[in-house]
Amino acid sequence: MKYILDFDEVIFHTAALKQKMQELHIFESERGPDVLLRIQEADPSFSLEALLFPDARAFLEVHGRDCFIISSASSTVVENNTDVELQKAFQWEKIRQSGVEQYIDKTRIHIVAEEKREVLEKLRRQLMEQGELFVFVDDRERYIREAQELGIPTVWMCRQQPFFHATPEHMPATPEFVRISSFAELETVVHTWEEEKK
C-alpha cells in the first residue's frame, strides 16, 4: 500500500505553530523562511520537529518509504495568499525543519501553490501502472473531493472533529467520506480494504 499524505494537520500540528506565531505577534499573513527564523530567535527551545503528531511520526517510521506528500502552500484565509513563491518557500522550510525528510525522500514531497489535482493525477497513473494499491489522506474536504473525482481512494483526517455526523435523533449517520482522527485508524481502514480485496 502506498500513502499519499497531506502535511498540515495530517502529519504536522499546524495549529500549534499558528498559536506560537500569535504569541510572538507574528501575523499569519506573513510567509517565508524568515518567519521561522524569527520564531527560533525569539524562542530557541521551540522545535518544529516537536510539532509532528506522535502517531504520524510512528506511522512514518514504519511506512515512510511507502509515502508521498502533496502539500498546498496556500492559506485557508484567502487574504493571506499574496506571494506564492514566499508561501512555497515557507512550506518547504516547515517540512524540512519538521524532520519529515528522514522518513520520506525529498523526491516524493510535492509542494503546490494551491491545486493538488495535477500531482494527484500523475501519482495515480504512476501507481496504477506499477500495480500498487494507494490511498490519499487530507484534512480538507475540497482535496478529498478532488481525489475522489479522479477515482483515488480517500480518507478524511479529522483530528479535531467527531468521527461521524449525528442525525437529529442522535444516531450515527453514514458519513459521505471515510473519516479518521489518527493514523492508527488509517491502518485499520487500510487493513479492512486489503482484506476485502483478497
Question: How would you describe what is shown here?
Answer:
This protein has 198 residues and is α/β, with parallel strands linked by helices. The chain has a single domain, classed as Rossmann fold, CATH 3.40.50. 41% of the residues lie in helices and 13% in strands. The chain has helices at residues 14-23, 33-42, 54-63, 84-98, 117-129, 141-149, 183-197; strands spanning 2-5, 67-72, 109-112, 134-138, 154-157, 179-180. It has a 6-stranded parallel sheet, sandwiched between helices. The radius of gyration is 17 Å and the shape is globular. The model is unreliable at 162-174 (pLDDT under 50).
- The parts where pLDDT drops under 50 for at least 5 residues are 162-174
Query: Could you say how many structural domains there are in total?
Result: 1
The biggest beta sheet is recorded as:
6 strands, parallel
Assign a percent range to the helix content: 40-55%
CATH topology call: Rossmann fold
How large is the radius of gyration? 17 Å
The main sheet orders its strands as 3-2-1-4-5-6
Record the SSE blueprint:
Blueprint: E1 2-5, H1 14-23, H2 33-42, H3 54-63, E2 67-72, H4 84-98, E3 109-112, H5 117-129, E4 134-138, H6 141-149, E5 154-157, E6 179-180, H7 183-197
Parallel strand pairs: 1-2, 1-4, 2-3, 4-5, 5-6
Helix pairs in contact: 2-4
Outline of the structure:
With 198 residues, this protein is of the alpha/beta class. 41% of the residues lie in helices and 13% in strands. The protein is globular.
